[in-house]
Amino acid sequence: MKKTRLLKIVLKRTGAIKLLCSYVIVFFAVSVAIWIFEPNITRLFDSIWYCFSVATTIGLGDVLATTLVGRVLSIFLSICSILIIAVVPGVITSYYVESTKLRADESSAKFLDDLERLPELSKEELTELSEKVKKFNRKK
Questions:
Q1: How many CB atoms lie within 10 A of CB 67?
Q2: Where are the alpha helices (DSSP H) in the chain?
Q3: Residue 56: DSSP 8-state
Q4: What 3-state class would DSSP assign to 41?
Q5: What is the pLDDT of residues 85-118, one digit of tens each?
Q6: Cα(25)–Cα(138) distance, rounded to whole angstroms?
Q7: How far is CA 17 from CA 28, 103, 110, in A?
Q8: Cα–Cα distance for residue pair 109/85, rounded to 1 Å
Q9: What span, in angstroms and rounded, lies between the C-alpha atoms of 55 and 29?
């Protein structure tokens, strides 16, 4: 549950949620258009299935677009799907890297601040600082 929440926050902060929502709208709009224009697709569910196989590049072949409009819409949906598959993981990775850098910078700043105030630190704070340094050295 926590990971799902974090994913939603990342997608919202980066603006990728708008991209995903736009993609879902395009997906269903193309599904409806395919259903309308393709004579061999008689049910909306079949059109959604066809669009799913196009979007995931599976291309099962059980349902095919035969009209020019259907084929153009299929190409459009394929391009949108490829872009989504490329962009969203990149956004998430970029956000993760930036948040990790920020955490490291904050830790470094706190560590340097503690070093500057070394004579003022209590025995407990000095012990804690010493443990952090030992832990840092073990990670290297």
A1: 13
A2: 2-14, 16-37, 44-55, 68-116, 123-139
A3: T
A4: coil
A5: 888 888 878 777 877 777 777 777 777 777 788 8
A6: 51
A7: 17, 24, 34
A8: 37
A9: 13
Q: Which DSSP letter does residue 127 get?
A: H
C-alpha closest to that of 88 among 2, 30, 12, 5: 12
Domain that holds residue 102: 2-139
Res 24: pLDDT: 95
Alpha-carbon torsion 56, 58, 64, 65, what sign? positive
54 with 73: CB under 8 angstroms? Answer: no
Residue linked to tokens 């799907």 = 81
Model confidence, pTM: 0.66
Q: Are 47 and 41 in contact (CB under 8 A)?
A: yes
Structural domain tally of the chain? 1
CATH number of residue 74's parent domain? 1.10.287.70
Place of tokens 């804690």: 128
The answer, yes or no, to whether residue 17 has pLDDT greater than 60, is: yes
Q: Which two tokens stand for residue 88?
A: 């969203």
CA distance 71 to 69: 5
